[in-house]
Specification:
Blueprint lengths: L2 H28 L3 E8 L12 E8 L5 E9 L5 E3 L4 E2 L5 E3 L4 E7 H10 L5 E10 L4 E3 L3 E4 H4 L2
Antiparallel strand pairs: 1-2, 2-7, 3-4, 3-6, 3-8, 5-7, 8-9, 8-10
Length: 153
């Protein structure tokens, strides 16, 4: 094999590597990516009405494609789900969440703690928030330590 053939082979391999890299980058940029945050907080309204302490669940579309959010809730330690069909929220569901947009839902701590206590949970455990889209993809938050006994009753 001469130098010309070796150079041609190297150029062909280089082209294949670059094409594969571009395909991977394109797929990563165009796939649906939603970040979920779960935190404690409370809402303050300018009219002087304050909410009770709440769990705040937020979805942020960090991808390049819109995603339609259909439901939200919490994943419990036993893998069961706590779905809240009518949460307090700044939007109505289902919701098309375009690139760079977010939505929030909030839940009174006492209501969530009482619901969990009725299901037999007590003490401190890790609660995971989630949003689900119309294609049945589930996007989950990092676990948040939640003390049922502190907020229930």
């Amino acid at each position: 094999m001469g130098w010309v053939e070796i150079i041609i082979a190297l150029v062909a391999v280089y082209g294949a590597i670059i094409s594969t890299y571009n395909l991977i980058i394109h797929r990563e940029r165009t796939k649906v990516r939603v970040k979920i945050k779960l935190s404690f907080g409370f809402l303050h309204y300018s009219a002087g009405l304050d909410s009770k302490h709440s769990l705040i669940l937020e979805a942020i579309n960090i991808g390049a494609r819109p995603v339609t959010i259909s439901s939200q809730g919490f994943i419990l330690p036993n893998k069961r789900q706590l779905i809240c069909p009518n949460p307090y929220s700044n939007v109505q569901f289902p919701l098309e969440l375009s690139e760079g947009r977010n939505c929030m839902s909030w839940y009174e701590l006492k209501i969530i703690a009482d619901a969990l206590a009725q299901e037999g949970f007590s003490g401190i455990f890790k609660l995971v928030g989630f949003y689900r889209d119309v294609a049945a993809n589930t996007y989950m938050s990092k676990p948040l330590k939640f003390d049922i006994d502190k907020y229930s009753g």
